[in-house]
Design a protein that fits this description.
Layout lengths: L2 H19 L2 E6 L5 H13 L3 E4 L2 H11 L12 E6 L5 H12 L4 E7 L2 E4 H8 L4 H33 L1
Antiparallel strand pairs: 1-3, 1-4, 2-3, 4-5
Helix pairs in contact: 1-3, 4-5
């Protein structure tokens, strides 16, 4: 085998391992992103323990076929980047969606979340889910409100009784 062929086999093996280990795999079109924006994107991904890679579409197609992800093949046209997450399924979608909203030519293509196919629309819905902290805050707020109303009611009854006496 030639050195070039060995490098391709090595890359395919690397991609396959990442696909098998990841809980979230998101394809995006990174065309039109400049170096500064790319650096920012990669830093944000790295800070959250995510991976952001660019591979040749041909190599990704080989892996997709081997793993039974044939539905991804139609999305492997043009400039394709992949975000891999091994724990958090929402963060890569949030970051990539944010970049797609800021940059006209950058956009989400498709993804695999916990083994399930996600098209662009589904990924955008996933990206718009509030963070865990926001959801907890809303839950606590919804629990607190009726209790506060009840305390106010009891206080008003007490005040009324006192004013009657």
């Amino acid at each position: 085998m030639t050195k070039n062929m060995l490098n391709k086999v090595k890359k395919v093996t690397e991609i396959k391992e990442k696909f098998q280990d990841a809980t979230a795999i998101i394809l995006s079109n990174y065309q039109g992103i400049n170096v500064e924006q790319d650096t920012e994107l990669r830093k944000r991904m790295r800070d959250l323990g995510l991976e952001y890679k660019v591979y040749k579409n041909r190599l990704i197609k080989i892996v997709a076929k081997e793993l039974g992800y044939d539905f991804l093949i139609e999305h492997l046209e043009g400039a394709t980047s992949i975000a891999f997450s091994y724990k958090d399924i929402v963060s890569p979608a949030k970051i990539l969606n944010e970049f797609s909203e800021r940059l006209n030519s950058f956009h989400l293509k498709a993804g695999i979340i916990e083994g399930e196919y996600y098209d662009k629309d589904k990924l955008q819905k996933l990206a718009n889910i509030p963070t865990k902290e926001v959801l907890i805050s809303k839950l606590l707020s919804s629990i607190k409100s009726p209790i506060a109303d009840f305390a106010y009611l009891i206080s008003a009854i007490k005040d009324k009784k006192e004013s009657e006496n």
